[in-house]
Give the backbone structure.
Amino acid sequence: TKAEAVEQIGSLAGYLLNRNLTAEELKEASTTTISGKYRAAVIAKYINMDMENFDRYNPRFDQLIDSENSSYELKLPEESMAKFVANKYPILNESVQLMLSEPVTAADLPKKQETTAIK
C-alpha cells in the first residue's frame, strides 16, 4: 500500500509515488540509484529528453539530489537509461561545471552570526 511504501522509503516516498507516469511507462522504465552533483538539465540533454518529460519521470530532481541524503532513484525509459549509463561520468562532470558556474546569491550564503562586543 502507499502507507507501507511511505514507511519503507521515508520522506522521499511522496515524490517517488507522485511520478506522473502511465502504467505502460512504468512497466517500460528502468531505475538506478545515483548520488553526486547531477543536474536534471544536463541529464536530459545527454539522453535527448525534453525537461517536461524528464520532470514527469523524476519530479523535483535537482532539489532532491541536493538534499542531505544526496542519493536519488533515477527513473527513465530503458533506452534513455542506457544513454545515461553510457555517459554517466561526462554527465556528472558537466553537471559539476554547471553548478560551479552558477552565480551565488545572498540567499545562498550562510547567515552572519551576530556578536556582541564585550565591554
The CA atoms of residues 19 and 59 lie 6 Å apart.
